[in-house]
Give the backbone structure.
Amino acid sequence: MQRLIQMVMLFCLMGGPALAQDDAVQDLPPSFAASAPDWTGRYAGIQLGYGDVSNGDSGSVGGVHLGYNHDFGTFVLGGELDYDIANIDIGPGTTIDSIKRFKLRAGYDFGRALGYVTAGVAEADGTSGDDSGPVYGIGFAYELDSGVTFGAEVLRQEFDGLAGPATETDTTTITVRGGIRF
C-alpha cells in the first residue's frame, strides 16, 4: 500500500502536469473553460471514512477540515487543519479516539478538478495516551457548482507510542470529503 501511495504521489508531482498541457485547456469549449474555478481561497467541510492499522485492526473516522489554497494558474499550494473523531482498534482494549492534522498541500489544477499531494504532522489521542508523527498522502477535489466540492483523500500517519512505548502504530485513513469554498 505504501509503495502504491508513493508511486501515485510521484506521478502527481512529476508526470501529471506533463500530461495536462496548457494547450489542452485552450482546446476546451469556451463554456467549460469559463466554468473552471480558481482554487484560491478558504474552504471548509466534513469527511467520513475508514482507518486501517498496520497490525490488521481497523475502525471508522469522521470529522471536519478547514484550509486555504492559492491557485498560481496550473499549480495550487495550500494548508489545511483537520480533526477526526475516530474509533480505530490498535490492540487489546486500546483505541485511537481522535486524530488532529496540520498539512501542507501541493496540487495540479485540472480545471474543475484538483489533484494534490499532502504532508504534515498528525497527533492521535488514544486510550493509552497520545502521540504525534508525520502524515502524508494524496487526494482530489472536484467542484460541483459555485464552490461546492466533493473529493477523497488517502493519508498515512506514523505513530510510535500509541499502543505502548516504542510500538509502531502506522495508520492509513481513506475518507470521502465534502465542502464549500468561500
